[in-house]
Amino acid sequence: MKSALFIWGGWDGHHPQETAELWAGILKNEGYTTEVSATLDSLLDAEKMASLDLIVPDMSSATITGDQEKALRAAIKRGVGLGGWHGGSGDTFRNNPDYQYIVGGQWVQHPGNTVDYRVNIINHTDPITAGLGDFAVHSEQYYMHVDPGNEVLATTTFNGDTDPWIDGTVMPVVWKRHYGQGKVFYCSVGHYLTDFDIPEVREIIRRGLIWATR
Q: Is pTM, for the whole model, over 0.90?
């Protein structure tokens, strides 16, 4: 039986507790044992970390101590997976480049705030996106600084309505990568709880978390 730890905190606007509990329940239905924690000190429990197969941070704008970050890096290097979405994983620990190196990206802006945009599946054979088509989203469209080493599975294109100089910019939305022996999955959709009601978003994140699991 696989084990997943969901850690929530940071900015309340991303509903971290609700989303962590939502996805802990989804993985529990997949046969996982899941734990939801409100403290990064969970990372300092050596016995717990040794038993984990997946860590999911949901901590927009949060901070992390040196010891906590060292424990997280060590666990993923050993093979524990990391998965997440939106600001919970892509805009947390802003002042920690080592964490950004793990995730493969960092949020920098969402032009126009809540807008209508499309997500385009560009890899139709990967198990995370296979069988899924392009889909529409009404939410924050994340503009991110991303690692060129990511394996990108889906993208979005900015129209420049708010910032004309980014018109036509193609931005990764879903990617996967490795860090040491660990697998890392990220999806930038997920600002509102209702974003997870979009069938494609829910399925991509479900598959992505399962893929990242050790």
A: yes
